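sorry to bug you again but im stuck and you know this stuff better than me. below you get a single protein, a line of residues and a line of whole numbers that encode the local backbone shape. mainly i need to know what kind of three dimensional shape the backbone takes. anything you notice is useful, everything is just below:

***
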Amino acid sequence: MCFDNDALEGKQHLKERIYSDLDTIKKSVDLPSFNLIKDFWFFFSHVASKPNPTTQDYAISTCFRMIFQRTHYPKFDGIIYPSSATNKRGLNLVLTPESVDSCLILKQAVMYKCDRDLVNYNITGDVYGKIVDVIDKRFYF
């Protein structure tokens, strides 16, 4: 979902994959439908990358994911979009709960405290606790 060149800078493999998916859609639908999908994706990417000063920071991406999943791809794994919190220096990767449950295994957990400088968008952080092992979904301190 990320079509923002600033956010994709230095992520060539991801950029190639995103445009490959777009080409697949272009071959699968008529031209007006493709243009509508492409325009919407580019619009969403642009809107998602803009800082939102309200408490509803993720409302747009949540709505988009729900619409996308319910109307086109009920079994999709997640979405990627530019991070407004980092002024497009990073990407957000959102996985569905089903994808997490079926594709990932939690081996260790740690709390990490992040601080964001709202002026220049730098993010700093430190481990805030010790790393714990997770075996069979149980935490061992």
